[in-house]
């Protein structure tokens, strides 16, 4: 009976230690702080350049991400398009022809108003007018700066022009 109790305690201790070490880190190493596990500032918010979106004759700056899809879009400027209203003004979308290159871009984004993304399964560009939940299928390629997104947050389709920023 004493051996059964000892074995039970050993099994419980083993499971407990395994559960506490869920990231398979070496228990002998110092704990990683949240600060140390975050990417450095060098890898965050890298941008490749600026463009402008012209809405109803008004130009608004757009900061582009440093990835292949953003560079592909920039290489096609100027671009006059009609943004289609999608999901009750949650986003405005268009389908670039040919589709923008993705070249293994990291997926995953929780868009906020003004974010310009690609929905990878369909290949469409989506400009978010409202906040949306994280999706592993979104790739962020830019963000409309300032209050430009307010001019897209309307019912229906809207014609816009993307052009190289003069600033």
Low-confidence stretches: 4-45
| Count of DSSP strands | 8
Oligomer type? single chain
Helical fraction equals: 10-25%
Class derived from helix and strand content? alpha+beta
Estimated radius of gyration: 23 Å
H-E string: HHEEHEEEEEE
Q: Strand order, main sheet: write it out.
A: 1-2-7-5-6-4-3-8
**Global outline:** globular
Main beta sheet: strand number and arrangement? 8 strands, antiparallel, barrel
Mean pLDDT, nearest integer? 79
CA(first)-CA(last) distance: 81 Å
Percent in strands: 25-35%
Tally of helical runs: 3
Explain briefly what this protein structure is.
With 167 residues, the protein is of the alpha+beta class.
Topology:
Layout lengths: L1 H19 L13 H4 L9 E9 L2 E8 L2 H8 L3 E8 L4 E4 L20 E5 L4 E5 L9 E7 L13 E7 L3
Task: Please tag this protein with its features.
167 residues; alpha+beta; eight-stranded antiparallel β-barrel; 3 helices; 8 strands; globular
Give structural notes.
The protein has 167 residues and is α+β, with helices and mostly antiparallel strands. It is 19% helix and 32% strand. The chain contains 3 helices and 8 strands; from the N terminus they run ααββαββββββ. Strands 1-2-7-5-6-4-3-8 form an 8-stranded antiparallel β-barrel. β1 and β2 form a beta hairpin. The longest helix is centred in the N-terminal third of the chain and has 19 residues. The radius of gyration is 23 Å and the shape is globular.
């Amino acid at each position: 009976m004493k051996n059964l109790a000892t074995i039970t305690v050993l099994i419980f201790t083993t499971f407990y230690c395994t559960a506490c070490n869920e990231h398979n880190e070496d228990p002998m190493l110092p704990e990683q702080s949240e600060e140390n596990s975050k990417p450095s500032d060098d890898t965050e918010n890298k941008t490749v350049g600026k463009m402008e979106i012209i809405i109803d004759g008004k130009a608004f700056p757009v900061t582009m991400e440093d990835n292949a899809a953003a560079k592909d879009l920039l290489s096609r400027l100027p671009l006059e398009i009609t943004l289609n209203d999608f999901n009750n003004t949650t986003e405005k979308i268009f389908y670039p022809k040919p589709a923008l290159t993705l070249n293994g871009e990291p997926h995953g984004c929780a868009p906020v108003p003004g974010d310009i993304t690609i929905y990878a399964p369909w290949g469409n560009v989506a400009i978010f007018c409202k906040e949306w939940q994280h999706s592993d299928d979104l790739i962020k390629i830019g963000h409309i700066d300032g209050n430009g997104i307010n001019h897209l947050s309307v019912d229906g389709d809207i014609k816009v022009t993307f052009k190289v920023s003069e600033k």
